[in-house]
Amino acid sequence: MGMYDGKTVIVTGGGKAKSIGYGICTAFAKEGANLMITGRNVQKLDDAKEELERLYGIQVLPIQCDVNTNPDSEQHVNDAVARTIETFGRIDVLINNAQASASGVPLAEQTREQFDLAIYSGLYAVFYYMKACYPYLKETQGSIINFASGAGLFGNAGQASYGAAKEGIRGLSRVAATEWGKDNINVNIVCPLAMTSQLEAFRDNYPEAYEKNLHAIPMGHFGDAEADIGRVCVQIAGPDFKYMSGETLTLEGGMGQRP
């Protein structure tokens, strides 16, 4: 018996292999959760569905959904959540992991389009999904985990729009924790640092910069998306952490220390 047998977990940005989102999906699948996963690439979503269902015997609903400046984006999210209810009948955990951004661009050179990319794919997406899922999370007294970043916490150079989106997500999460506490919905924030396909590409293209970043981590290595990020999500969305809400957890190997 798994910890999430018969329960439904939504993971945005969960379809890409070697990503934090897929690591989260794997951790919940191993605990018996059925999954609704979103992403922009249909083939990657279908591949994730095939592998997760084959390996773990759960059911996966893949839905292409890209939140952007299109005025229909909120309706697309509402439709995705409605399909989740039609398929599974319930929502127990919402994990807002998806985010796109133009990294490495100095603030003075950021364009409106680049800023919109981060704000819509991140902050607006979290806003839309939280609103759409609220009635169903209220029924199950479920949990929300929203993903922020050390880039926002510490003001990393070249991350203006990304940091703004992530700090907006943290503020929105804390308000939700206050307003929805009466419904026994807990809302927490995770700032992760894990090895992904993007980080592997960075290592291959910029080995010296990669080593410099690696040495900045007190534990001396990047986290594992499933073991170090996904497993934590499994736990903090579960009953043992129900009384924790509005908190920011930095899963960065000791690099996320702050007052």
What is the percentage of strand-forming residues?
Answer: 5-15%
Shape verdict: globular
Give me the side-by-side strand order of the main sheet.
3-2-1-4-5-6-7
Give the biggest beta sheet: 7 strands, parallel
The sequence of SSEs as H and E is EHEHEHEHEHHEHHHE
What percent of residues adopt helix (DSSP H or I)? 40-55%
What is the radius of gyration? 17 Å
The separation of the N and C termini measures 40 Å
The stretches of 5 or more residues where confidence is low (pLDDT under 50) are none
Number of helical regions: 9
Write the layout of secondary structure elements.
Elements (H helix, E strand, L loop, with lengths): L7 E5 L7 H11 L3 E6 L2 H15 L3 E5 L8 H16 L4 E4 L15 H29 L2 E5 L2 H5 L5 H21 L5 E7 L4 H9 L1 H9 L9 H12 L11 E4 L8
Parallel strand pairs: 1-2, 1-4, 2-3, 4-5, 5-6, 6-7
Helix pairs in contact: 1-2, 1-9, 3-4, 4-6, 7-8
